[in-house]
Structure formats: structure tokens, C-alpha cells
Amino acid sequence: MSYILASPCILHPHLRAEGITSAEDIVIFSRCIERCREAGIEIVPLPCPETLFFGAARAPGCFKGRMDFPEFSTLLDRLEENVRRMIAERGEAPLFILGVNSSPTCGATKTYYTEEKSDGAGVFLKRFADFPLIDVKEFAKYRIYFAAPLFSEAERSFNRKAADVLESLYYHVHLPQDLDDDAESRGENREEAIYAGNLAALKSADIVVAVIDGADADSGTAWEMGYAAAAGKRIVALRTDFRRFSGNECVNLMLEMESEVVHSLDELSELLKIF
Question: What residue spans define the domains of the chain?
């Protein structure tokens, strides 16, 4: 089984310094755990240097003036050695290391080295710069709503192919055609159930990937993109059609201005891969 190394407070929030864990943090941690569970990725917790050095009950603080002592450095040396030994014993490297930004020890890309937050990894995780470092907030955004026309065999086949690409990157993909949205189901007056199912998935999505091929974008896809834009969601528009409306516009200015536009499944994969 593939695995990641993770800041231990993701699994055990009580290890964090007192008073810093919000309800939003708990949701983010839970979604990271759920993403790994769905993808079949094992989460291996790292040791917590701060808990080992200060104890579980501790006030929050930066590294400078609080942990920049030889004793703490010696502890980090020992913990790094233990972690690298564990990796060697497993016989394969972790996919990445999941950190928690702001932490002076386990920040992935932001840390409190001093009293001002700065770019860079925490003092423990930066010892593992030979592995990708990812923050929990980035990794927690994994639910994709795939907006696209689904009326022909070719369209449905392409949608499934695109969803497979996204799922290989450990995303959870909602594909509206999987709600049995076809001519037969619409003839059975299931429109309300189909609409409700898609709307619920759209509301909960972190990212909307929308196919805007054709002489004009599909009207349903345009509606879904508009909803996502109004909700402040990230939108990625996939335009594989080589025709252009103008020199600066592929098909529709309003849709493209709210989107990151890519032109192939390879470009889509490159944009959304996290490691």
C-alpha cells in the first residue's frame, strides 16, 4: 500500500498547542483523512517534536527564542534519524509529507520561524526537503464536479476518460452521467432527482472542471460554471477543440475569464497534480 508521512496532529489534534485548533481545522483534517481512505493511502504519523520537548500542554509560539537551543536540535536529529530508518525499512519512499502550515516545526510551505509568518517549511519538515511537502488545506480540496455535455456516446466516453485521469490523481470526481442521466431516465420523470443530486455535488465541490468544447459551450455546463463562479469555487475549463472564437477568446469570454483554461487531458493532469 502507498503511504504518506503526516504531521501527527492531523490524526490527533490534541497534540497541537493550546487554543489554536478551530472547527475549520478539524474539518480540514477530517477531509485529508477521508481523501487518503478513499484512495487507499496509508497515513503514517510523524513524531511531534514540540510535544516531546515541551509536553502536550503548551502555549503556541514561534521557533526563534523558544526552540533554537542545542537540546531541541539534538531531538530533531534523533527524530529525523528514526524517520529515515523507518522509510528505509519500508522499502519505498512516501508519496509526500503532509504538513500543517503555520507550525514552527511541521509547516509545509508557511511557518512561524519568528513572530511573523514566513515562507518555507517548519524546522522539522525542512529536513525532509527531498520529499514533496504539502499543506493540509491544499490536500483537503479534492472533490471535483465534472461539468460537461453527456448526450452522446462520444461525450460520455470522453467524460469517463477524463474522470479516470482525475481519480488517478487521488481526486473524488462527481460525474453527472453516473446518476443515470439519459433519455430513458428523463422519460421516467426523474429530472428533479437528477437535478437535486447534481446540485448537492456542485455545492460540496472544491473544484469544478468544465468541458467547453464545441462552437458554443453546453448550456448546462455554462450554468454550472456560473454557479461555481458565484460561490467562489475554483474552475478549470477544458477546451480540446482547436477552433477559436477570436485571437484572445476560445469560445466564451465570460466563461474563460472565471477559469483556468487547459487544452488537453495532459495539461489538466499537470495543473491539478499535487505532487
Answer: 3-139, 143-272
| CATH class, 143-272 region | alpha beta
Helix/strand/coil (H/E/C) assignment for every residue in 173-184: EECHHHHCCCHH
Q: 172 has which bridge partners?
A: 143
Nearest to 136 by CA among 39, 52, 46, 35: 35
> 3-class DSSP state for residue 209?
strand
d(CA 112, CA 237): 36
**Arithmetic mean of pLDDT over the chain:** 93
Which of 224, 229, 207 lies closest to 144 in space, CA to CA?
207
Residue 188 scores a pLDDT above 80: no
Q: What per-residue confidence (pLDDT) applies to 253?
A: 79
Cα distance between residue 258 and residue 238, in whole Å? 13
As a whole number of Å, the end-to-end CA separation of the chain is 17
Q: What is the pTM of this model?
A: 0.88
